[in-house]
From TrEMBL:
GO MF annotation terms: DNA binding
Stretches for region Disordered: 333-353
Protein name: Phage integrase family protein
Keywords of the record: DNA integration, DNA recombination
GO biological process: DNA integration; DNA recombination
InterPro entries listed in its UniProt record: DNA_brk_join_enz, Integrase-like_cat_sf, Tyrosine_recombinase_XerCD
Organism: Ferrovum myxofaciens
Length: 1083
């Protein structure tokens, strides 16, 4: 037996450390500040505590001394020491020892012995959940064992089955081997098989919600086990049979289908009495193979967190091009949930006040509401009328909302009861006021700013019930803001979707490494044209902290220089192969608060960040320390306003914009960087626990950057948790690094690769089959199977290796017997070269894409080869466009010449853009259909081409869209164009007479133009006569007065006409050749 460590005999120990053994009542009494402890007393009372003190003595000997004064330690040093104390303390006493250790430190601080920060107050681990291996559950698992044995022997039987029996076989296989134990999931399987992807690697189960008033369905992605895949693939050749309806109740329907199969195979005597017994036994069996959180996910104890289809496709093939126009995505409507007026739902929200400290002003409002039922509206009005100079805008707004919405009768709405009013204020008051401070919620500019604030308020709700209440209250408040203050609506964002079980859609999204780095690359490229290089660097680092460390946006911009600390004795010189041990502390400071106490956390940057990103942030940290050495100085000073972190700075939206346009996903937000951190970390910790026994499929996260990240999983897992195998601590570690109050919050909203992990773990459930059984099931000869095994001895292989071998067979069967197509790993993207731009959307977006390429070609020291690669345009075309651009009259396009980087003015306002789109749509329609008044379609196309070619020649410089021509065909073409744009009634035609010998009279000239222009009103001008020699009949000037038109242009300002002028001029440069497709409809 190992001997316990002992302190050396003459050790000087302060008597305060006896508090670790038994409570010391006078710990802060100055009379005991330098009293020593008797070592013999310690050894007789608690040898275990002596081992703890030995550990402290080995690391920090001075801290134990009775004579020490003003001893200093950094936060990271005290946290490290506390971790060592936790390791050596007796298991059942760890919480008590850590708590008393910090109480001794705090007392020493008060007595002047120490100057040591208290990093946190330790909280005990939550009580262990009740074991799933209860007696009844074990009996249920034993009860289904004969059924599973008989089923595994029957699956290879090639006998023809009835439709009911085949579906019973499929459903029982999915339950037994695929972890699909919920009846609702099984009932969605037939429809999922009809629209399965070709290789059947996954199936999308569309599940109905519990809300009967909507057709919304929640999609759950299920990765079938290899045995079920083989059953499905084998049947797909002949077509899946129709599902017979044996019972209207889903659970009975599933049970009767399974019983039909058991009856035809002759083992119906093995069937339990109902589907509940089968599901209970299978769930208990899962606990022998899966971690508890994964069993809970399989059992639908947590909301479905599957990625939407477009985000899942990005996992398989990460996008690396910038798209100019975002694809519109379907947003699921929020489930209405229980009626907020239902008093039965009005349980006390005990957790709301724990989330944030309420300001005194908000407490005053709560006190007014609490004052009783009588005259509540009058009391609120009196509170609002009280003049308080420093009342926070957010508190005033909440009071206004209470008075104008909650307590007023409206159409289809009755005043809320006092209890309901208090609950609605209670659940959002602290969450909003704590975030906003002195900011006015009515003055935010964009919908994304509101979404970010509401998401922060919704994120850390401790239960589904609380989240539902917060969502309802925020929805009501924002509706009032939209109606009263005309703030941007946020309904399309889906922010108020309740993420409760079966109640709504979780805001799921995931960003791969290539996508994220491509977004940063685009941010570097485009940001430097808008902001200084210093601001661009900060935006890049803020995004990296969100992605690699899971920081909220407000947490990242509110960091200080003192929040980044090097471990004791670590060199600050950066080496890629041996980066320093650096930690980031997320704590409350003068720049911003934290949402919850759990938000205070320590993050190991050296483990979480890639070496390149770690080097960047440490270099920035070093630069900032030379600028301002104070530990309290902000890490990102450009986002600090009046001493506070400005979370609504519009420049921060560029991080979101770059992500959205790289991923072509308008639903992406900054907060999804945090979702990606949680999903990535869960995947890495799970994969690190497999000890190389599990291999990931080559189609999953296939790029080299992703693969390299996955290869680091063992190091990351060992650094965060250690080498010991564990199930429970893994997810607790993820939750702690996220700063969540509980594991439920992490599992209900953030882990979006749980279904994939579940799909790999079910390999442990598939049965061992003999050579002949496997040959009968797959249809392949034994020799063929040995060839597929590639030397694997499947009879001695682990369960994971056996499952992966069956996946190979299933892949070949799904590929209809052909050799499986090799998935080529995507080449590494050079994220420091200009990123390629993909033009999508309408004609104007395509045109702007080409104009942007042309504009960048004008920059000095620019290689056309780079522009060609970035925009996908041939160099020969770029050269042609540059030459054409030089022929345009000066001023037709706004090209600043006093800027080092010239660029075309692409800033079309909404009205300009709307008019330009209408013009292109009109020309496209005429180009494709023709105009009967012109002739055949080819004649109309020539008409359009002539119009575009001659526009720069007839445009009058210095005007928005005024033209002047001495040619009657040109004037007719221009008026024809205006007629199709519905702007002809705004046209004013002025005639300037021609001069010279043998010219007709002024009246004859005017008559010529009037009749030639279909008897339009032509005004004679008394200005200087036309000087054109050939203009024997003078010329006409056509101007546009938008105030005269009936076309609904808003606003009716002449500046909107620049949209037409810009578009016509760019068409003349890039869009008139036959190779161009600008005037053709796009798919």
């Amino acid at each position: 037996m190992a001997r316990k460590k002992q302190l050396p005999a003459p050790t000087d120990l302060w008597v305060g450390w006896t508090h670790l053994v038994e409570p010391f009542d006078n710990l802060t009494d100055p009379s005991v500040a330098e009293v020593p402890m008797l070592l013999s007393w310690l050894r007789t009372r608690s040898p275990d505590m002596e081992s703890v003190l030995v550990t402290i003595f080995e690391l920090q000997p001075l801290i134990l001394s009775s004579a020490v004064r003003n001893m200093r330690m950094s936060k990271i040093e005290i946290v490290s020491l506390l971790m060592e104390v936790d390791n050596v303390a007796p298991r059942e006493q760890r919480f008590r020892v850590k708590r008393r250790f910090l109480e001794v430190i705090e007392a020493g601080n008060m007595l002047g012995k120490f100057v040591i920060p208290i990093p946190y107050v330790p909280a005990p681990l939550p009580p262990s959940p009740m074991s799933p291996l209860q007696h009844n559950n074990i009996l249920a698992m034993a009860g289904i064992r004969p059924l599973l044995t008989a089923f595994s022997e029957s699956i290879v039987d090639a006998k023809v089955l009835s439709p009911a029996a085949w579906w019973g076989k499929a459903l029982l296989s999915a339950m037994s081997y695929g972890g699909l134990i919920k009846t609702s999931f099984l009932m969605a399987l037939p429809d999922a098989l009809k629209r399965a992807e070709p290789l059947m690697r996954w199936l999308e189960l569309h599940l109905p919600t519990q809300n009967q008033n909507t057709n919304t369905r929640i999609m759950r992605r299920w990765f079938p086990d290899p045995v079920s895949r083989m059953i499905f693939c084998k049947q797909r050749i002949h077509g899946f049979p129709e599902l017979p309806i044996l019972d209207r109740i889903a659970s009975r329907q599933v049970y009767k289908l399974i019983r039909a199969y058991a009856r035809e195979q002759g083992f119906d005597h093995c069937m339990p009495n109902g589907i509940k017994e089968i599901a209970t036994g299978l769930k208990t069996r899962l606990h022998y193979h899966f971690p508890p959180w994964l069993v809970s996910y399989a059992n639908d104890d947590y909301p479905n967190t599957s990625l939407p289809d477009w985000s899942w496709q990005h996992v398989l093939k990460p996008p690396t091009c910038y798209v100019t126009s975002l694809t519109s995505r379907l947003v699921y409507p929020a489930s209405p949930g229980p009626n907020p007026d239902d008093e039965s739902d009005d349980n006390d929200d005990r957790h709301s006040n724990e989330l944030t400290e309420w300001p005194a002003q908000l407490k005053e409002l709560a006190t007014v509401i609490h004052g009783g039922h009588a005259n509540l509206a009058g009391r609120i009005d009196a509170w609002r009328a009280t003049v308080i100079p420093d009342r926070l805008p957010s508190v005033s707004l909440i009071g206004e909302w209470v008075a104008e919405v909650l307590l007023k009768k409206g159409r289809g709405r009755r005043p809320k009861k006092r209890r309901t009013v208090y609950q609605m204020v209670n659940c959002i008051g602290g969450r909003l006021v704590g975030q906003l401070g002195r900011m006015d919620l009515t003055r935010l500019d964009t919908a994304s700013a509101y979404v970010e604030i509401y998401q922060n308020a919704l994120e850390d709700t401790p239960s589904i019930l609380t989240r539902r209440k917060v969502a309802r209250s925020l929805n009501s408040l924002h509706d009032y803001l939209v109606k009263t203050y005309q703030v941007p609506p946020v309904s399309e964002s889906g922010i108020f979707v309740v993420s409760g079980r079966g109640q709504g859609k979780v805001d799921a999204n995931f960003i791969g490494l290539d996508t994220f780095f491509s977004a940063l690359n685009w941010l570097r490229q485009e940001g430097k044209q808008k902001f200084s290089q210093k601001v661009v660097n900060q935006l890049e680092l803020i995004g990296s902290l969100g992605y690699f460390c899971g920081l909220r946006r407000s947490e990242a911009i509110g960091l200080t220089l003192g929040d980044i600390e090097y471990a004791q004795g670590q060199s600050q010189l950066f080496e890629k192969n041996n980066p320093p041990d650096v930690w980031l502390e997320v704590s409350q400071n003068a720049l911003r608060g934290l949402k919850t106490r759990a938000g205070h956390r320590m993050l190991p940057l050296s483990l979480l960040m890639t070496p390149i990103e770690l080097e960047k942030i440490l270099h920035w940290h070093k630069t900032r320390r030379t600028e301002d050495p104070r530990p309290s100085a902000p890490l990102f000073p450009d986002f600090i306003v009046n001493g506070h972190a400005n979370d609504t700075d519009p420049r921060l939206d560029w991080i979101t914009k770059s992500l959205q346009h790289i991923a072509d996903d308008e639903t992406l937000r900054f907060h999804h960087l945090r979702h990606s951190f949680a999903s990535w970390l869960t995947l890495l910790l799970w994969y690190g626990e497999q000890n190389g026994d599990v291999s990931l499929p080559d189609w999953f996260l296939p790029t080299r950057h992703d693969q390299k990240r996955i290869q680091m999983s063992g190091i990351i897992r060992q650094g965060l948790i250690g080498k010991a195998p564990t199930n429970r601590r893994t997810m607790l570690q993820v939750s702690a690094l996220m700063g969540h109050q509980g594991l439920d919050i992490t599992l209900t909203s953030y882990i979006h690769l749980a279904d994939f992990i579940l799909g790999r773990m079910v390999h442990r459930l598939v049965p061992r089959l003999t050579d002949k059984q496997l040959s009968d099931l797959s249809g392949y000869s034994v020799s063929n199977l040995y060839a597929l095994a590639s030397g694997l001895n499947w009879k001695t292989a682990s369960s994971a290796q056996w499952g992966q071998f069956l996946e190979k067979i299933a892949d070949q069967m799904a590929n209809e017997g052909k050799h499986k197509k090799v998935v080529t790993v995507k080449s590494t993207v050079n994220f420091y070269k200009p990123i390629a731009i993909k033009s999508t959307g309408n004609q104007l977006d395509r045109l702007l894409h080409r104009a942007q390429a042309l504009g960048k070609s004008l920059w000095p020291n620019t290689e056309l080869q780079d522009i060609s690669a970035q925009y996908g345009i041939d160099q020969s075309e770029l050269l042609l466009w540059i030459n054409r651009l030089s022929t345009l009259p000066s001023g037709i396009l706004n090209i600043p010449t006093n800027h080092l980087q010239q660029s075309l003015d692409l800033k079309l306002g909404p009205a300009m853009r709307k008019l330009a789109i209408k013009m292109l749509d009109t020309l496209t329609d005429l180009h494709d259909r023709g105009d009967p008044l012109i002739g055949k379609r080819a004649a109309t196309q020539k008409h359009i081409q002539a119009l575009i070619e001659e526009f720069p020649l007839i445009w009058i410089p210095g005007t928005y869209l005024t033209v002047k021509t001495a040619s009657l065909p040109q004037a007719k073409r221009w008026l024809w164009f205006l007629t199709h744009l519905e702007l002809d009634d705004a046209a004013t035609i002025t005639h300037e007479k021609g001069t010279g010998k043998s010219v007709p009279s002024k009246a004859a000239q005017l008559d010529y133009w009037t009749k030639g222009l279909s008897n339009r009103t032509v005004i004679s001008s008394d200005s200087i006569p036309c000087q054109t020699n050939s203009a024997t009949r003078g010329s006409v000037q056509i101007n546009l007065n938008l105030q005269r038109t009936n076309t609904p242009l808003n606003p009716k300002k002449v500046t909107v006409l620049y949209g037409i002028r810009f578009t016509l001029a760019i068409l003349r440069v890039v869009g008139i050749q036959t190779r161009s497709d600008i005037l053709r409809p796009f798919p």
